[in-house]
Amino acid sequence: MRWHRYIQRSKKCGAQAGDLVAILGIGGLGHMAVQYARRMGFKVVAIGRGADIAADTIELGAHVYIDTDQGDAVARLPMGLLVGGERSIIGSITGSPFENEKALSFSVLTQTLPMIETMPLEQANIAYQKIKSGQVKFRMVLTVD
Questions:
Q1: CB 49 within 8 Å of CB 67
Q2: Which of 39, 87, 138, 144 could form a disulfide with 110, with the two C-beta atoms 3.0–4.6 Å apart?
Q3: What is the Rg, in whole angstroms, of the alpha carbon atoms belonging to the chain?
Q4: Is beta strand 43-48 parallel, antiparallel or unpaired with respect to 20-24?
């Protein structure tokens, strides 16, 4: 789910403060969704791959981190609540300029910031290799002096 659509989708799905929200994929977009969900009052489960991001997801606001390298995430979630509570799984590919503006306003209001790593533009190839190899946790930003 795109982070800039997260707020809109939570309204459309009927989720309310206190409800369980699972975020699958804790990368560039997922780490923002974890922060948004926590600040909106949801019980947040972050689902990712690898123990190296477990502490980061808790720091970002997740109540629970499920490492898919260590087991079946579906088995760890309360699927009975999904079916019995008539809940749904929602995803999105893109958002409108209005939705992007609303998400950015929410970010400013709640001080929700991305975790980034920076490298000079001259090292773009090195940055690309780090991204490709999975050595960048969340976002890589190229800088120009």
A1: yes
A2: 39
A3: 16
A4: parallel
pLDDT for 3 equals 46
* CATH fold group of domain 3-113: Rossmann fold (3.40.50)
Please state, in angstroms and as integers, the Cα–Cα distance from residue 35 to each residue in 38, 43, 71, 121, 128, following that order. 5, 11, 24, 28, 26
Give Cβ neighbours of residue 117 (< 8 Å, ≥ 6 apart).
130, 136, 137, 138, 139, 140, 141
Question: Mean of the per-residue pLDDT values for the chain?
Answer: 86
Q: What residue spans define the domains of the chain?
A: 3-113, 115-145
pLDDT digits (tens, 9 = 90+) for 56-102: 999 999 999 999 999 888 888 887 666 666 667 777 666 788 888 98
Tokens coding 48: 């990712």
Task: Give the pLDDT score at 75.
Answer: 84
What does pTM read for this prediction?
A: 0.81
CA angle 139, 33, 15 (to 5 degrees): 170
